[in-house]
User: Fold 4Fe-4S ferredoxin-type domain-containing protein from marine sediment metagenome.
Amino acid sequence: CPSGAAYKREEDGVVLIDQKRCRSWRYCVSSCPYKKPYYNWASGKMEKCILCYPRIESGMPPVCFHSCVGKIRSFGLIFYDMDRVEEAALAEDKDLVEAQRDIILDPFDPEVIAGAKESGISDDWIDAAQRSPVYKIVKKWELALPLHPEFRTLPSLFYIPPLAPITTSAGKNTPTSTDIFDMDKPEEGPLLSLDEMDKFRVPFKYLAGMFGAGNEEVVKKTLLRQLAVRHYGRSIRVDGKPNLEVLERVGLTEEDAKGIIRAFSLAFYDERFVVPNAKREEADISPYTERGFAGFDTMNPWSPMKRKKSSHKSYHTGSKDYE
Assistant:
């Protein structure tokens, strides 16, 4: 954005466009890898999804997450190492997905918890990070991938590559050919083979270009894990006993499979959306709150402003305490 109208909020990572600074040059339309900004012909300004940031500040998920009838959206927070952001952004294209996953921190690690508290993160935010479905889907199970990581914008939204269209089309070259769910291939095992994965309706190169910066292995890994969980669930329902071999082949445990099944099909509202309150009223620096309390000659721009504990005492009262 040549005018500097587009910016990313530090507190939650939501990207907004300042309507006062926008000059409608529309460079954001051509440069945005996610194709989110659009030109409002009525107002003559650029606009985009604001991710319902007032709802996020109040501890509620965005409306599109809340009203999704398919329940395919999850919302939560993750801890990441801010000192390693540059390292992740400078990684090679084939290593971008792993580099972005590596900077995501484990919220159960005692060192991470201690560092979060030193950074001013409250206990309820730490608890929300531990219950976050996003951490499990992106980091623990490695199912979700960032959209166009080659642009190195460190996105906050992750996507799970589609699986439903491919399982109904692969392996059906002729009406009598074997379907994937028959699993009648003892020489290859119960899981889909890599040669059959090349017959998918959605080409791997296309998915890898969207979610893996050209790296097909990360896309194959997440699709194989989805298929493994599907075979695991089918073995319990049809055969009456869990097929753990198919999970071991893709690096999952039975506990992981049960967690994935619950997260994607049985999770309750409070499991899919873990949004802590932003606590805007407790912010250390609040220029809007402090307006009119001091002139420009008495304010030091390099030191935090003093917040009044009480609004019922005059500003010059000597006994009044500040936070």
Summary: Residues 216-239 form the longest helix (24 residues). DSSP finds 15 helices and six strands in the chain. The longest strand covers residues 6-8. The domain at 6-50 is CATH 3.30.70.20 (Alpha-Beta Plaits).
